Amino acid sequence: MQQLIGLFAFILVLSSGPSFGQESATEGPKSDAVTSGRALIREHREKIIHSELHFTEKEAKEFWPVYETYRQKNNVIMDRYANLIAEYMRRYDDADLSNEYADQMIDTYFEIQNDLLRLQEKFLPEFRAILPALKVARFYQLENKINADIDAQLALIVPLVDPS
Predict the structure, then answer these.
(1) Residue 16 domain boundaries
(2) Is residue 163 domain-resident?
(3) Considering the domain boundaries, does residue 164 fall inside one?
(4) Which of 95, 96, 100, 156 could cross-link 91 (Cys pair, CB 3.0–4.6 Å)?
(5) Residue 162 lies in a domain
(6) CB–CB of 20/14 below 8 Å?
């Protein structure tokens, strides 16, 4: 799982589009790698959830469509996170960090984190309507664990701001 999470962290950084490299994130080999990498991560995430939650047939039938909608909305937020990281990395590499940018970056980061939390809260009643409370709790634990693993891998490749 760690190698896959590390791959995702790398893909997250690459998926930012033109601000991070010459190619657009929607064209060329880089785009193909990002698309296939994200598909691989998604498949792996779903396998983890499937294997860890032991759905009944009825639960699975009701859960996966709601989960698909949840992940689509989550991916929109995570695209913003990828863009934030990529923009920071570009500015870091170009020695183009400023106090103004740091303020903007911090505000954007907290907006993204709040949006992720609001999304989890928004879908909580839907997941509760489908699954028993213990499975809902385990589902959110798995989501948070996978996200924490991704953040830990990102922490290894994203340099800290040098305040001097």
Answers:
(1) 2-157
(2) no
(3) no
(4) 96
(5) no
(6) yes
pLDDT for 113 beyond 70:
yes
SS3 for 87? helix
Within 13 Å and on the Cβ side, how many CA atoms surround 34?
A: 18
State the average pLDDT over residues 135-163. Answer: 91
Q: List C-alpha distances in Å: 49 to 35, 46, 52.
A: 21, 5, 5
Cα distance between residue 104 and residue 110, in whole Å: 10
CA distances from 29 to 6, 7, 22, 25, 71 (A): 20, 16, 12, 9, 25
Q: Is the pTM of this model over 0.85?
A: no
pLDDT, residue 142, reads 95
Number of domains in the chain: 1
Burial group, residue 20, by CB count within 10 angstroms (0-12, 13-18, 19+): buried
Structure tokens at 113: 């984190």
